[in-house]
Design a protein that fits this description.
A five-stranded parallel β-sheet has the order 6-7-8-3-9. Strands 2-1-4-5 form a four-stranded antiparallel β-sheet, with no helix packed on it. β4 and β5 form a beta hairpin. Helix content is 39%, strand content 18%. The chain is elongated and about 75 Å long. By secondary structure, it is α/β, with parallel strands linked by helices. α6 (148-162) packs parallel to α7 (179-191). It has seven helices and nine strands. It folds into two domains: 2-75 and 143-215, 3-Layer(aba) Sandwich (Rossmann fold); 79-136, no CATH class.
Length: 222
């Protein structure tokens, strides 16, 4: 998988055993590129191109942007929907089927008792959608972690397992991680074959695990 950006000669190859990082030191250009990424993910506007071999992929469907690792909530609507869908599929497997049937029966009986002798002409489904139970009970991931690295890694692994997104774009992640934390994070995601892309405003230093492209204040690509 490769990511191509307009006006940038270097391509970002996710097949390499490196983390792709783009640093744009020009503040106006940085803001413009971030807005372009946001518009593409949110509204499907054309900007970046994503290829798997020679076949262009749907950038909007495959990419998620994380703007702030501190404010970021691991329980995104997309991830929770994928989680609940996955769990609902397990309600019909061999281990859970009989318990699911019994639970549905209790729900129907409860509704029947609740509606008994009501004057209104009320209807209900006698085969309730059990998947709604997960949302009703607020089934979600634990969002309390000791470090940013742990929090982000848990989110990435969950997203990968559920197939909600394939590429994760981090804005200014380097502002929040020490050199040691970044190395740990890189090694962990690379070991899991998780595709991440960093776009930073500040250079700091180059990590040996990075495929780095630098756009300086004069918009020169280095």
């Amino acid at each position: 998988m490769k990511l191509l950006l307009p006006q940038i000669n270097n391509s970002f190859d996710f097949a390499q055993n490196k983390v792709n990082r783009l640093v744009i030191e020009n503040s106006s250009e940085f803001a413009r590129v971030i807005q372009k990424f946001k518009n593409q993910v949110d509204f499907g506007e054309s900007y970046a191109s994503l290829f798997d071999d020679i076949v262009e992929q749907n950038f909007t469907k495959l990419v998620e942007i994380i703007y702030s690792p501190i404010e970021f909530n691991i329980n995104t609507p997309l991830l929770l929907n994928s989680l609940h869908k996955n769990l609902s599929m397990e309600t019909s497997n061999e281990q859970s089927f009989l318990k699911t049937v019994e639970l549905k029966r209790h729900i129907v009986n409860y509704i029947q008792d609740l509606l008994y002798n009501k004057d209104a002409d009320l209807l209900y489904d006698d085969d309730p959608d059990i998947s709604k139970v997960f949302k009703m009970l607020g089934v979600r991931y634990n969002d309390v972690y000791e470090t940013i690295v742990e929090k982000l890694f848990k989110f990435l692994v969950a997203s990968q397992e559920l197939g909600s997104k394939e590429i994760f774009l981090f804005v200014n992640l380097s502002d929040y991680l020490s050199s040691e934390e970044k190395t740990t994070f890189y090694k962990t995601v690379l070991a899991k074959n998780i595709k991440i892309f960093l776009i930073d405003r500040n250079f700091y230093e180059r990590n040996s695990l990075e495929n780095l492209t630098l756009i300086d204040k004069d918009l020169c690509e280095l």
